[in-house]
Amino acid sequence: MTDVLSLDGLSIAFGGLRAVDDVSFAVRERAVTTVIGPNGAGKTTLFNLISGALKPQAGRVTLSGRDVTGLSSAAMHRAGLARSFQITNLFSEMTVRENLRLAAQVLEPVSHALRPLRRRGRAADKVEALIDRFSLDAKVHEPAGALSHGEQRRLEIAMCLASEPQILMLDEPTQGMSHADTADTGQLIRDLAREVTILLIEHDIGLVMELSDHVVVMHQGRKLAEGGPAAIRADPQVQAAYFGQG
Ligand SMILES: Nc1ncnc2c1ncn2[C@@H]1O[C@H](COP(=O)(O)OP(=O)(O)OP(=O)(O)O)[C@@H](O)[C@H]1O
Ligand SMILES: [Mg+2]
What we know:
By secondary structure, the chain is of the alpha/beta class. The chain has two domains: 1-80 and 165-246, P-loop containing nucleotide triphosphate hydrolases (Rossmann fold, 3-Layer(aba) Sandwich), CATH 3.40.50; 90-163, no CATH class. It contains nine helices and ten strands. The protein has helices at 43-51, 73-78, 96-104, 122-133, 149-161, 179-192, 205-211, 229-234, 236-241, and strands at residues 3-14, 17-28, 32-36, 58-63, 66-67, 81-84, 167-171, 197-201, 214-219, 222-227. A six-stranded mixed β-sheet has the order 6-7-8-3-9-10, with helices on both faces. The protein has a four-stranded antiparallel β-sheet with strand order 2-1-4-5, with helices on one face. Strand 9 (214-219) and strand 10 (222-227) form a beta hairpin. Helix 3 (96-104) packs across helix 4 and helix 3 packs parallel to helix 5 (149-161). The chain binds adenosine-5'-triphosphate and magnesium ion (MG). Residues 14, 17, 19, 37, 39-45, 86 line the site of adenosine-5'-triphosphate. Residues 43-44, 86 line the site of magnesium ion.
């Protein structure tokens, strides 16, 4: 199995707070790797360091064998990394189709960006495929802001896929979702894992156990443990730091 992404000693401090402190692990191709840990453990900050939203003060990020440490988020996106945010990140006034079209635009060469819309290119084809796959047909003309919370989060995942990424990073995709929407999203992630490498942050521990091939536990900025879901659940240190807190 190949590692698509590897992190080596990643660190950043905000003032005196070591938000991410010497974190290293590898993400295997076509696997679901999940980062768990209590609130404030540094999970989102770690995602920011990987995706280029923040520059690490120490350490290295390697994507498909290439050192990408400190690249901008735009450059990381072009390098094949797509990321959804803990808080929804849609253009709420724009329709579902317009949001998808914008996200797929990266598939078109710059010289094609202004050509007539009726001449379908890769981006337009991608949009139609995603509408179909995410069963959004009935919603394409609605403003994204009019969708339910669960639908918005799913649209966000669809938008991440529009750029055909190598790695999909999802920060708490089920946050604020109903039980049914959480289950649907779990199923969606399972399906997606067949074609794209997934790096996930998730609090729903049932879902973590069900979906993950590999689990990384963070606590106070540091990596506390990593391993298969069953081993992680049985680890007394992890239980004390995370499960114990409920
Ligand atoms: N830009 C920032 N400036 C200062 N402190 C920050 C910044 N971003 C995060 N922090 C702090 O870093 C720590 C880690 O935060 P982070 O958001 O990464 O945690 P998290 O594991 O994602 O938590 P949650 O489960 O609540 O989403 C927290 O103490 C947070 O207050
Ligand atoms: Mg977070």
